Every structure is written in C-alpha cells, then in structure tokens.
Amino acid sequence: MSIEARASYTDTFGHAFDAKGRITVPSEWRVDSFESRLFVVPSSATCLRVYPESWLSGLQEKMKDLKDADPVRQQVQALASIAQSTTWDQQGRIMVKEKLRQRAGLKKEAVLVGLATHFEIWDKATWEKKKSTAMTVEEALSALGL
Fold it and tell me: Which CATH number fits domain 12-143: 3.30.450.20, 3.40.710.10, 3.40.1550.20, 3.40.50.1000?
C-alpha cells in the first residue's frame, strides 16, 4: 500500500488581523511542502475555511463531465463566485477581504485551526466558546476503524 505524503495543517494558532485585513499564516504552514496559493471560502460554521489550490483543482476535476445545468456544477460555481484567491506576502500574511471577515464574524483577534487538509479562521471569542476537548490518537484511530 502506497501512501502519498502531503502537507498537513495541524495545531492551533492565535493571530490578529491588521488594519488592512491581513493575518499571519503560521510559519509551519508556509514551508516548501505547502501550497502558497490558497482559497478562502465562507463556512456555515461561522468561520472561514482556507484550502490549498489543489482542493479547487480537485473540484474542477469532479465537475469536468457535468453539464452546465447540473445542480452540483451550479453549486460549485456559486461557491467559486464568492471564494477569494490569495497568497502570503513576504511577512507570511494573507489578506482576507472585509466581506468574508464580516460574514464569519471575524474581529481583530482570531484563531487559525489546522484540520489536516485545510485550516479554518475563527473569531477568538467564538472559538473559545466552540472548541471541544482534544481527542486522543487512540480515539481518532478507533473512529476510523483502525
């Protein structure tokens, strides 16, 4: 069995937005194995989700045989119309558009939460209310049937 090595977004980091709407991406997530082009999209979980470019490429691949009138294609296209493409600057910051920050209720203080394939940006106060107790590796493996 061959497993392809991938960069994984792990850990949780507190950072603040600056006056221009920029926030620092943790240096651990900016090494060569991570993609520099990211897509920021709103989530129903009152946060923003940030995916690497390969995620959008995967969606495009899944859509390639769908007709224009297909509801799945239309949903993905609607998501693409509100997604923001970004890359980090020399200081490791990404700019997040104000309309996306407002939609997610993001204020100055934020938390970046690694979720393996992507990360989320939460308002710090909202995250503090939401966060759950950490799962152990044994619980995670058991949940996966391993």
Answer: 3.40.1550.20
